[in-house]
Amino acid sequence: VQLQASGGGLVQTGGSLRLSCAASGRAFSNYDMGWFRQAPGKEREFVAAISRNDANTFYADSVKGRFTISRDNAKNTVYLQMNSLKPEDTAVYYCAAKTVRYYYSVERRYDYWGQGTLVTVSS
Fold this sequence. Notes:
seven-stranded mixed sheet; mainly beta; four-stranded antiparallel sheet
C-alpha cells in the first residue's frame, strides 16, 4: 500500500489542523492505521492509531483530548484532527499502516509509511 500524507502547515498556538493520509493499493480496510511524529532532534514517537474496523482508537498521553483520529474506508483515507495545538506539537507527522493486529503504538510493527507532512506551531 502507498501512503500520501497532507495537511501540514504553520499554525498559531491554540489553532487547529487536520491531517489526511490517502492510501492506494491493496484493500485499505485490511490495515490498522497510525500517526507518528518526529520533532527536530528527537526520535519518532507514536501519536495515535485506529483499528482496521474503526472500532478502537489509541492516543499518546500528550495528545489525548486534543487530537482525534478517524478513517473513511470508502475513501481509503485516515485523518488526524489536531486541536489546541502547542509549540511542542511541532514535528513532521507520518502516517503508517500495519497488517499485524495489536501493537498499535509500536513503530516497528508498521509495514508501510508515508512521506511525512510538516506541522509548525508558533508561540
